[in-house]
Amino acid sequence: MITLLQAAAPPPGQETAVTLHGYSLPDNAAATSALSAALMAELPAGSTFTPPPPVRDMDILTWVRRGALRASAPPFPPEDLTDEWLHAVGTAENGAPPLWQALQDSSLIQFHILPETQDSAPEQSVRPAFTALEDGGFRILASGFPEDDPEDNPEATLIITDGAPLALRSRTRLLHAALPRDEGAAYQTTPERALFVLVVEGAARIGETPVRAQEAALITGEENLTVIASAPSVILLVDSSLTPRSLL
């Protein structure tokens, strides 16, 4: 089943210098997954952004679409990010919410993911862009599957320099594809998964369903996904478990 999702602006009276658009995920048992929130924000230079709650006890993935940001997530040290870098930080149940400061006009896309294990310590890590490694298909940027990156590094703050995915605390993946016009990317998953496909730039088709720039599609009940670009496109894909949140 495919459900199209459009980015929604905040209600009137809640506007700020930061332009925030969120994707409303279906709140029913059949679509409940580890992906708690997906949003897109435009930050003028000098502005700061703190995502709307809940943000505690989450893995927060921030992909810099363009610009330069400074991520501050105590107790971890600040991290400076730029175009197509990925920042991952785990928040504690009683910790201070993280914030992002725009060092210049910037755009970010953020995913909030519920951890599956309550006893795992939050971590922070950063993955620079590795455009030279992209092959046109989906590439894993972050994952909670050990087989995606068997290296075990105990450092609390990591800079990933070899193209390996950032570590998550749930069986979830974030993937990226940059596709020329009329080319596609395929992905295979397992039953009882939810696939959140966001067309960051360009336009694409999922089967017979067109998805325009900044639109998303939530796909359930499918094990195979093929995205065909109708124009040069950038795609982000989140593959998360359909386990009820009460059991995560």
TrEMBL record:
It holds the Pfam family Pirin_C_2. Gene3D superfamilies: Jelly Rolls. Residues 164-239 form the Quercetin 2,3-dioxygenase C-terminal cupin domain. InterPro entries: Quercetinase_C, RmlC-like_jellyroll, RmlC_Cupin_sf. This is Quercetin 2,3-dioxygenase C-terminal cupin domain-containing protein. It comes from the Bacteria.
